[in-house]
Each structure stands twice: as C-alpha cells, then as structure tokens.
From TrEMBL:
Protein name listed in UniProt: ABC transporter ATP-binding protein
Alphabetized SUPFAM superfamilies for the sequence: P-loop containing nucleoside triphosphate hydrolases
Source organism: Devosia aurantiaca
Domain of life: Bacteria
Record-linked SMART domains: AAA
Keywords, in A-Z order: ATP-binding, Cell inner membrane, Cell membrane, Membrane, Nucleotide-binding, Translocase, Transport
KW Hydrolase (keyword) present: no
Amino acid sequence: MSKPHLRLADVHRHYGEGDRTVRVLEAANLTVESGEMVALVAPSGAGKSTLLHLCGLLESPQSGEIEIVGQPTSKLSDRGRTQLRRSTVGYVYQFHHLLPEFTALENVVMPQLIVGKSDKESAGRAMELLGLLGVGHRATHRPAELSGGEQQRIAIARAAANHPRVILADEPTGNLDPETSDVVFGALKDLIRNEGAAALIATHNYDLARRADRIVTIRGGLVVAHEL
Ligand SMILES: Nc1ncnc2c1ncn2[C@@H]1O[C@H](COP(=O)(O)OP(=O)(O)OP(=O)(O)O)[C@@H](O)[C@H]1O
C-alpha cells in the first residue's frame, strides 16, 4: 500500500502556560489519502487554523508526528521544513493574496521559479493550470482586473503549481457569493482528483462540505468524523 499523503499521529498543540493554557489538540490523529478531499467544519476557536498550520508545517506540535508522503517532519530543521513545505504543500487562503503588480500567469509562475524550474517549464505548467481552472483567457490580467472568483481560481492554480502532495485551504470560498463559491469549490475538487493530492479544506459552508469525500471536526482535542 502506498503511504498516505498526510498523516497526523498523536499530535498535541497548546498555546500559553499554566492557567492560561489553551489546549487545542490532544493526541489528534488524521490520515488523508492521495486524491481525497476532507472538509474541516468546526466552530470558531475550535482550532481549524491551528490544524491547517500544523499540516502545512507552518507551526510545530509540542509532541506527536506529522508525516507528509511518509516523511516524518518532527526532527527536521527549520530549513528542512521550509524546503519540504515548498515542494509538497499548496496553501489557499480566504483572501487570494496574489501579488497585485504581477499578471495571473506570473503569479502562478513565481513559486515554480523559487524551486528552480525553468521559465519555459513554469509558464507551461501555469497555462495548463489556468486552463484547467477555466481562467486561461485571463492569464495576462492583473489581480485588480479580475473578479473575486477568478482571483480565487488563480490562487488555487498558484497553490497547485509545484504539484503539491497536500493541498490545504482555509475558507477558500469564504469571500465569494454562493454561485461563485460553487464553481470555485468544484474547480478545486477536480484539481485535487486530477493531481492526486490529499486535501484538507476548512469551510463554514455546509453545502460545500457535503461535496467532500468526508467531513471532520475538532472535538475534545481530537479530529473526529462529523455528520452534518
Ligand atoms: N498564538 C496563539 N497564542 C495563544 N492562543 C492562540 C494562538 N493561536 C490560536 N490560539 C487559540 O487557540 C484556539 C484555536 O485557534 P484557531 O485560530 O486555530 O481557531 P479557528 O477554529 O481557526 O477559529 P476561526 O474559525 O475563528 O478562525 C483559540 O482559542 C485561540 O484563541
């Protein structure tokens, strides 16, 4: 059997000390397979951002292990974590965070140049992704010249540029109207399937969460299956 793309084993994460300790995760476990889309639905303050940051190697747990494609990360140096993150994790935020002075194409090319790909290869991949997400005709536009849904699809293309094994999204459609949310979520789902990435998507939108392969929540410091 191939290794799960994303695995959390007995992860503990708390903030603060003594009386002020906030225990977010206590011995939390989660496995996401290649091509699987898992929705994360939990009340405000339950720890969604914390969980996504841990999976994206942006934060470290106090104990436990996070594995990306079978590679344990707890003993990596900061540099090792950054390298692994850049080559294996794609992150989509609620607000697109595209670079305003660059075109859609350039925004998707940039992360590829950072990992050492050639201009030609990067541009080819960027055009492929923009096409897949239905925004190929907007390649030369700057973010300010794009609709919210187009901006978010370009942010998804950017996150997918380096063929990430893990895609993490924090309210990726939180800023969009219902119809556009539907289109963007569908595009994200197709991309995850096509790329065979493991995805964890935090959302407050129950209709969208139901379109994921399964839904999880955070309860009592654990990541548990959730019924809507
Ligand atoms: N740097 C920090 N220092 C102290 N406490 C923190 C820190 N970051 C998060 N917390 C606490 O940990 C808990 C989980 O926070 P987190 O941001 O992960 O929640 P969330 O589910 O993403 O919330 P929301 O939906 O409101 O964004 C909260 O109680 C928060 O106050």
